[in-house]
Structure formats: structure tokens, C-alpha cells
Amino acid sequence: MQDPVHLQWVVAGGAFALAFVFGAVAQKTHFCAMGSVSDIVAFGDWRRMRMWLLAIAVAVSGVTLLQYAGWLVPAKTIYATPQVPWLSHIVGGLLFGCGMTLASGCASKNLVRAGAGNLKAWVVLLVLGIAGYMTLKGLFALPRVYGLDTLKLDVGASVSTLPAIITAHGGAAFIAQALPWVAAAAIAIFVFANASFRGSPGAIAGGVLIGLVVVGGWYVSSHLGYIAEDPATLEERFVATNSGRPESFSFVSPVAYTLELLMLWSDQSRIVTFGIASAFGVAAGAFAMAAATRQLRWESFADAADVRRHMLGGVLMGFGGVTALGCTIGQGLTGLSMLALGSLITFLSIIAGCAATLKLQMWWLEREA
Description:
Helix content is 68%, strand content 2%. By secondary structure, it is mostly helical. The chain has a two-stranded antiparallel sheet. The chain has a two-stranded antiparallel sheet with strand order 3-4. The model has no long low-confidence stretch (mean pLDDT 95).
């Protein structure tokens, strides 16, 4: 019989190890959603976005294999519910995109920067965690639960993944089965169509490794941490996840739960979950890479306006990330890896919010020049 206590540490340890790789790779390759959008808006440079898209292609392929093996069931995750809270995805995504621009990076990027010694990132993470927890269970939860989340789209399928929606609405089964492979191949073709990217082995390796980390996260929580019949409840259980469901990487709610654990450490009911371990792992991996490459350095705020901007960004990311059920990683990679409709809506909204904020900042700078 599987021991839940033992599995808890298997899941937490696996999450930490995978997140360590994520942090090290992100630190080395400057893997960053906000940076990718910024490069496109300011310079028309798609290289970092191509690395992000390559990670999506790898994640989609890997998760499809996990589903074929029976190790991941989309219906059991938070991303593929048959009713999609579309307004929450849009509003949360837009606010998160705006917030990550003001805060110089998304939740995962700030974990990476914090590990490398950036004091601004520590402040952002503290504010993000508080705002995220308030959105999960506190004051900010009221407009989310009683407002935004009440508007849902019934996709008419058992799960809200694109293959399932196609099948439910009369599409041929072979089309639905082929869609993940076609999508991954199309993304890969676009990515490698650029000669400059083909000549960037570091970016290619970064995209592949980040995609594999997301797949590994699903494998750890959905397969290694799965108990078909929990001795205490006689029901199936996914051990050491905050949602009680299969999880892979996402970094807004986990930062909030990390603060909760640190504040309630003596409460024996609190444990190190997949998400909490992953938050520590990213920072540790970034620290190790920064130390190895002699890039560790303290960085702080330039002035009071810089503090206000980053704190506002943290609040917007905390509220937006929880409301949208994920961040750039949680929805833009983890959710998209199973082609969930809500994840696609959120990811596009995050990009739109980021691009609009960047353009507004550029306009403001030109106006003051």
C-alpha cells in the first residue's frame, strides 16, 4: 500500500528538483514572458518569444504522451472544467499582463531575479503573495467569486480542451487526436523558420528544457503522487497539491501558499506541497546558476516611484494570477500543454495586457522627453 507521507516527500522533492532546473535555465537564457513581449514591441525581435513557443510545443507533445499512457486525465485538473469562466480569464489575464510589466517580470521571473539577489523582486513577491492570498480566501475573493467567476461558458463537452470540444461538436475523432501533434508541429516550424534562432543553441536548449520541466511536473503530481484509494478516505487522492488535483508549474498561488506555510509553520496540518516546493526550487536554481556564472549581485529600487510601480505590479499579478487560474507559466505553459480553452484565453489576454502597458510606458517616456 502506498504511504501518503512518503509520497508527499516524493512529490515535493520532484517538484523542487524540476523547479531547480527551471530556475537555472531561466537565469542562464533570460527566459521571460514579459521580456519576450517587450523585445517584440520595442525592437521587433522574436527570438525570446520563439524560445517560449518552443517550450509550448515540447510541453504539448509531452503531455499528449502522458495522456496516451493514462498518467494524466485533463478532466481531473483545474484547467479543463466543462464550464469556462471566460471573463475571469480575460480580466485576470489583462491585469496580470499589466502587473508583470510594471513589476519588471512575471511571478516566475521575479523568483529567478530574487534568487540572483534582486531586492526589488523580493518586495514584488511579498506583495504578490499577500494579494494572491487575499484573492484566494480574503477581501479580493469577493469580486472574483461573486462577480467575475459567475459568468461561464459551457463548451458542451466533458472537458474544455480543444480536442474534446471538436469531438463533442461533431468533429472527426482523428482530427481531435491529431490536433496536439499538428499544433506542436506548426509551432515548431514557425520557431525554426528563423535562421537566427536556429543558430542559437542556448535558446533552443532553454525552450526544450523548460517544456520538459512542465511535462515532468504533470508526471510527478498526476502519476507518482497518485493514490487510487487513500486509506483515510477510500477515495482517489493526488498527494501534496494545494488544489487536491494534478498540478504542474504555476507561481502565483504557490507564492501565496508559501507565505501561509511560513506564517503557520507550527500548524501540523500544513505541509510542503508541490507548488511551495517549486517556488523554493526556482529561486534555488537561479541562485546556483547566478553564483556559477558570477552574476550574483544586490539590486534595489531607483527611487520611490520605482517602489510604487513594482508594488502595484505585485498587487495586479496577485489578483490577476489567481483570478485567471494561472500566470504566464501556469496558463501559458502548464494549461496550454493540454490545449485548454481557458488557458489560451488567459495567455492571449496576458500578452495583450503586457503589450498595451509597454506601449503606454513608451508613449509616456516620449511625452516627457
